[in-house]
Amino acid sequence: MRRRLIIVFLVPLVLVLTVLGGAYAWSAARSVQQEFYAEQLGDLSYFVTGARQALLSGSTEVFDGEVQRYRELYGTRVVIVDRTGRPWAPADADPVFDSPDVDAQIKLALSGRRGELPQNALPWQFTDLSLVEPVFDGGDVIGAVVMSASVDVPRAEIGRQWLLIVTVAALVIAAGLLVVFRLAGWVLRPVRRLDQAMEAMERGDMEARIADDTGPAELHRMILMFNRMADEIERVVARQQEFALNASHELRNPLNALLLRVEVLAADLGETGAADVEKIREEGQRMTRILDTLLGFARGAVRESDFEDVDLSALLARRAEAWREVASRKDIVLQLDSARVRARVDEAIVESALDAVIDNAVKFSAEGGLIELSADRVDGGARISVRDHGPGLAPAELEQAADRFWRSPRNQNVRGSGLGLAIATDLLRSVGGRLEVASPEGGGLAVSFTLPAAEDR
């Protein structure tokens, strides 16, 4: 986002500076060239007066001295040509004007006409200047003055001014970049703090808030609304935790009382029914473990450090045996087919998720149906699958199957609340797993868990 803001501010600034700087640079170059031409024309007019006197008097002594001093001072050469176009003064003049352009200007001047000034050009096209002015005596042309000037000085002046323009533009861009960085930081600071606060709340820090005086005034309302929302979420989570603690207290007491009565009943029955009593005791203890795990999950206290390597094939066999009696009431067969595979998870959470899925499978299977349970290895982890042969779901309904309280319109008369797969999804997510729902060939529904693999030993 910072990059986009910098581009939005900086690109127009660079474009404006380029246009204005280019226009000023061209204007400066033209100004230097015109000033140079004006100076040369003024000097040429002066030498035309001296050349007239020299030509009329036939003496070049005065003219030679002036031309020599001028050349030493400015590096510009001045020559008088006679009516035939041959160099006449200074005395050491030789026919060096062999340029076709200069020859054409001399001929034009000796015919009594003046040549046109050169047009403005770019500095690298700005070449040495040659000017020719006719010398009149009355109405007759008696010669011409040729001036050949170097453009090194004006070219250097143009380069200096252009360098100054580039330097100023660079400084303005640097200053603009600094201002944009500061402005972007000021504008985005509350957005970053909002992102950090939301991330903190996602990690479970319900006290994350943002200072009201952060950033521009336009964002203060958003910050205020976020803080209010965070307060409300904190209150809701606190009420949920209180409910979980109360539920723990209320459920644990009758569960403990039930287990005590089972122990008394076991003593009274002796060996008779001992196997059934043992199953009840195991289920009661399992309910205690599930209650502790679910309460920890509700408080966000499920930590990876509490995970352990779990034998999924053994876990699947235990839960299949526990559900076999319930399934037999509808003559449903639980078919177990699993390899020895392990995953690093919280065992009670996986058991709870598996129970929710098996409960759905039994609920929606027809009388005399088949439920297939399997566990196998997959890339990067392990998988548990539960496949029934019930009515299944349409492809468009699969994405909604794990939503809370969602039920297929075809199954509205079947008991249930539509929370089973949603709860299983949340439980698996807490241990780094995921739940997938698919419609296999042959009908029914296939629900699979993908879990983290156990550590290599």
From TrEMBL:
The keyword Nucleotide-binding is assigned to this record: no
Keywords, ordered alphabetically: Kinase, Membrane, Phosphoprotein, Transferase, Transmembrane, Transmembrane helix, Two-component regulatory system
Catalytic activity: ATP + protein L-histidine = ADP + protein N-phospho-L-histidine
Residue ranges crossing the lipid bilayer per the database entry: 162-188
Lineage: Bacteria, Bacillati, Actinomycetota, Actinomycetes, Micrococcales
CDD domains referenced in this protein's UniProt entry, alphabetically: HAMP, HATPase, HisKA
Cell compartments where the protein resides: Cell membrane
Domain HAMP: start-end pairs: 185-238
Pfam families found in the cross-reference section: HAMP, HATPase_c, HisKA
Domain of life: Bacteria
Enzyme class, first EC level, given as a word: transferase
Protein name, entry field: histidine kinase
Keyword field contains Phosphoprotein: yes
GO molecular function annotations of the record: kinase activity
Domain (Histidine kinase) ranges: 246-455
Enzyme Commission numbers on file: 2.7.13.3
